[in-house]
Specification:
Layout lengths: L5 H7 L7 H12 L1 H15 L3 H10 L1 H4 L1 H18 L4 H15 L5 H22 L6 H17 L9 H15 L4 H15 L7 H9 L4 H7 L6 H18 L42 H6 L1
Protein name: ER-bound oxygenase mpaB/mpaB'/Rubber oxygenase catalytic domain-containing protein
InterPro entries: MPAB (IPR046366), MPAB/Lcp_cat_dom (IPR018713)
GO molecular function: oxidoreductase activity
Length: 296
Amino acid sequence: MSRRYENAHRIAALDPERDHLEIYQISSGLDFPWDYTRALEFALFRTYCVPSISALLAATGEFRDRPQKRYDDTALLMAEMAAHGYDSPRGKESLKVVNRAHGRYAISNDDMLYVLSTFIYDPIDWLDRYGWRPLHDNERLAAFHYYSEVGKRMGIREIPPAFDAFKAFKAAYEEQHFTYSDTNRQIGEHTVDLFAGWFPPVLRPAARVGVRSLLDDRMLRAFGFEPAPRWLTAVAEASLRAKAAGERFLPPRRVSRLAHSPRNRTYPGYPDSVRISEMGPPPTPADFPAEHLRRG
């Protein structure tokens, strides 16, 4: 059991501001890879409760036509930044693709800030409920510093300078902007269908209800979804806590799971199956410099 907590001891000895990348890599890639993946899925799902965000996503058609590709692109690009560092060659290339995708649309700075905040606080909330060990304060602060640096490189302005201030921004934003809209429901249904599609056909109806069992009341209202039966919510939460209890007895993971997805649905064999520059939405002429266009 003492070996199981060696990463936590390592994190405790690091500085959450100076060493934020290393701490985030340990936490998300070694100690909690499955939980971070699920938490970030639901973090993105949460952003679709905002009508201005869901309306843009509905207008692009990406969720209607290519939901799995959009999901895989987002997950892998963010994982590349974490695995290699946002200032590494692969991290910079990933940021370039992310910025290219966002740059073609008129997205408000507050909407961008809000999405960034969910990447910090939703995984923390998930791990507080379902993690196999308590998070160290250094992990919480490192996540804030890590995503603050990512946000700066995405051109997001006015990022709150402290952990509690950014958390307060997130809470206030949700209080003001979480409201029902038809596009919320449309994108929400596409997302539930995406998650359910990962299961055999006979299990997909149950999976759709299971996804709803993990949504809070505010999200359910914003999507216009019926709540899952209370017993199912209790079973889902008990299952996640049982999984966490079992994980406490596993040996520490030695190989990071970040940016390693050989069974990826869009890019089987990732990272060897695709170049980062080929991910994201197809480039438009505006994405290329003029001299490139002149050369044809």
